[in-house]
Amino acid sequence: MKLIKVKCPSCKEIITVDGDSDSTKCEACGDKISIKDAIVEMMMSKADEVEEPEELEIEEEQPEEEQPEIEESIEEEVEEKPKKKSSKSKKSIGAQKYILQGDSCFDGKDYDKAYDYYVEALNVVEDDNYAEYKLSLINLFHNMSNKNKLMNAYDKLLEVDYYLDDNGKIINDTTKLKLEFFDILFEHCKDKYDELVSVNNNDINYIKRIFNLWYLYLYLFENVVQEEDLDQKIYKKVLLYIVDLIYYLQSVYRYHDETGNFGAVDRDFQDTNNYDNLEQKRNKYSKLLLDIDPSCQRLIKKPVEKKTKSSLNRSYMAGVGIVKESFKEGFSYLLWGIIGLIVTIIISSILGK
Question: Do 114 and 208 reside in the same domain of the chain?
């Protein structure tokens, strides 16, 4: 349990609450309050308490001869600096209020409201990198296969140097934020894979769109793992996503081989060099992943072997042969059955006489 002090939005009393909870009951007025709303209320009250400092009163003295001018500049800085800091503090806290509300809506997948709150935060602080990143991410959600939107969201993510946790605490390590970004992208890829294999969808244009999406994310992931000074957690996570993405691509190759949809699908998706290139990448990134964590072996899915036309033809002919043998064997049983029936009838006729 983490105890924090917040201000009740209803009665304005300062109360101590469990910072890990979502809501609580005010000890003073008894109202049920949201912990996040109480934190925002506390932050806003702090912003209101920041007052402009009074000007320093300096007694006028007769200027001495050859008095250095640097003293005057020091006095001016003493008067001006606190004012600038005060103004910036108010803006920063005001922007944080909207960002916390935006994050709450974002987590609840109410992206329209979240978008509005992030815009309000930028109206207070024009260059808030976190708000800009979240806006670019919401824009990406409207078209996940748009390369420009994807790269813009990633570029904005790299510019974020801090963000607020659920309790309004400033977090300077953005590793978790980056991991969440890659989780969002890969989850979308996985959803498309599950959707494709669960439904016998032979729409070539639809399949092309999924392929383009996967190759787009594969392109980003491959570039990410080549970055210098990349956090080890991010490096490992993205490597695993690359290997899984390649598995999805190879699985769809096999899926369409098994359905017998050659023609256009064969030209678009079964190019030997393309498939072999994926296999080379799978081996490369699997090795990199296992070098840093051998336990990931259990997470690497079994590679999908491509079925060529010749192998399918052999399978077809083998199947036909099995059917023929079964037919011949069944016909043989039927023939002997008929002969036996005829013999039985003849014998019965003779005995009846």
Answer: no
Are the C-beta atoms of residues 193 and 248 closer than 8 Å to each other?
yes
Q: Determine, yes or no, domain membership for 328.
A: no
Tell me phi and psi for residue 27, to 5 degrees.
Answer: -70, -25
User: In which domain, by residue range, is 270 found?
Assistant: 174-307
Which of 118, 152, 172 is the last residue before a domain boundary?
A: 172
pLDDT digits (tens, 9 = 90+) for 89-137: 556 777 888 999 999 999 898 999 999 999 999 999 888 999 999 999 9
Residue 126 counted as domain residue? yes
State the DSSP string of 248-304.
Answer: HHHHHHHHHHHTT--HHHHHHH--HHHHHHHHHHHHHHHHHHHHH-GGGGGGSPPPP
Render pLDDT for 307-347 as a digit per residue (tens, 0 to 9).
554 444 444 444 545 555 566 666 677 777 788 888 778 87
> Which residues 6+ apart lie within 8 Å of 296 measured at CB?
236, 240, 289, 290
- The reply to whether 162 and 180 lie within a common domain is no
On whether both 164 and 181 belong to a single domain, the answer is no
Q: What angle do CA 261, 262, 266 make, to 5 degrees?
A: 125
pTM of the model: 0.63
Give domain status of residue 179, yes or no: yes
How far lies 285's CA from each of 170, 176, 273, in Å? 35, 23, 18
> How many Å apart are CA 261 and CA 264, to the nearest integer?
8
